[in-house]
Amino acid sequence: GIQVEQSPPDLILQEGANSTLRCNFSDSVNNLQWFHQNPWGQLINLFYIPSGTKQNGRLSATTVATERYSLLYISSSQTTDSGVYFCAVMTTDSWGKLQFGAGTQVVVTP
Amino acid sequence: DAGVIQSPRHEVTEMGQEVTLRCKPISGHNSLFWYRQTMMRGLELLIYFNNNVPIDDSGMPEDRFSAKMPNASFSTLKIQPSEPRDSAVYFCASTKTGNTIYFGEGSWLTVV
């Protein structure tokens, strides 16, 4: 099956800093999503982005499908950005299976 | 919209007991997923339904686990008998095929 690798595994940021999270995948995808799991365990959908660039407030994401990677940008980080960020992908032959990466644990300190 | 609704939110049960987790997907969504999350294995897909039909249950750990979707607005995941290694957070998620997938808040299961 498709492999999804996220980097870095852990990230500590000071409030106000910017950061980039990366997701590499091993096959062509027709669905890619970024999720934020907050400290209470909720999985919040951030972006549906199989290709192109999207922005939502301080967050933005870019997927370069031909090169099999996606980036999530966090600008002017806040303590509420802490949590785990997951990239998840789906391929045309995966019958709806969303394959998750291992996640990037982000801690934003005041 | 109310989002994906799961119950119970938390359950503590004794080994050997039957556990039933429930999920109400978002209205209009035709695909439903059950995931399990543990520290050791991360997020694992257990089973996927499309139009109420199980499409892929290859992630179901063993015969103790079963899932049903009797109609478009309800699904259950049952563990019988439960074991301590089943302790995990169980997430239900739904989508209109090919679109954004939305997760419920999870059911936190502890088997003692």
Explain what you see.
The complex is a heterodimer of chains A (110) and B (112). With 110 residues, chain A is mostly beta strands. In chain A, 0% of the residues lie in helices and 56% in strands. Chain A contains no helices and eleven strands. In chain A, a hairpin with a 2-residue loop joins β6 and β7. The model of chain A has no long low-confidence stretch (mean pLDDT 94). Chain B is built from no helices and eleven strands. Chain B is mainly beta and 112 residues long. Chains A and B meet through β4, β5 and β10 of A and β5, β9 and β10 of B.
In short:
The complex is a heterodimer of chains A (110) and B (112). By secondary structure, chain A is an all-beta fold.
Note the topology.
The complex is a heterodimer of chains A (110) and B (112).
Chain A: E1 4-7, E2 10-14, E3 19-25, E4 31-37, E5 43-48, E6 52-56, E7 59-64, E8 69-74, E9 83-90, E10 99-100, E11 104-109
Parallel strand pairs in A: 2-11
Antiparallel strand pairs in A: 1-3, 3-8, 4-5, 4-9, 6-7, 7-8, 9-10, 9-11
Chain B: E1 5-7, E2 10-13, E3 19-24, E4 31-38, E5 42-50, E6 53-56, E7 65-71, E8 74-79, E9 88-95, E10 102-103, E11 107-111
Parallel strand pairs in B: 2-11
Antiparallel strand pairs in B: 1-3, 3-8, 4-5, 4-9, 5-6, 7-8, 9-10, 9-11
